[in-house]
Write a structure and sequence with these properties.
Blueprint: H1 2-9, H2 11-15, H3 20-33, H4 43-51, H5 57-84, H6 90-106, H7 113-124
Protein name: (rape) hypothetical protein
Organism: Brassica napus
């Protein structure tokens, strides 16, 4: 736990997914988004992968949403640990991320119902 705490408090490692705690979460989210990417712990490699995403537009959108949500959640976890001494497991954060992504997709329902349906199907698909 001490290593996880240090690595989450060290800003350099949190954002770069070089911390095993945050990288574990990132790996699950990359698989869940079904983008065909492989999770990388290095920030620059991750950004380059995201910039060069090709193929299905909805898969790209879902991958970028997963990336944004993962960064937000890891940073939120860091702040909770520092300021409120709340420590959550990777499984808890992944469950939170799944719910958050579903909610974000659903927030477009009125303006883009077809796209929401496709994104939700993709998110729930098994590969």
């Amino acid at each position: 736990m001490e290593t996880v705490t240090y690595c989450l408090f060290n800003q350099q490692y949190v954002i770069l997914f070089e911390c095993s705690f945050s990288y574990q979460i990132w790996q699950v989210m990359v698989m869940a988004a079904r983008s065909g990417l492989q999770a990388r712990p290095q920030w620059e490699e991750t950004v380059n992968q995201l910039l060069s995403l090709t193929g299905n537009r909805n898969r790209r959108r879902l991958m970028l949403l997963a990336w944004q949500s993962t960064i937000y959640s890891i940073w939120r976890e860091r702040n909770l640990r520092i300021n409120q001494h709340v420590f959550r497991s990777t499984d808890t954060i992944i469950t939170f991320l799944d719910r958050q992504i579903r909610n974000q997709i659903q927030s477009f329902r009125e303006s883009r119902p077809r796209q929401v349906s496709l994104l939700m199907q993709l998110w729930f698909s098994t590969g």
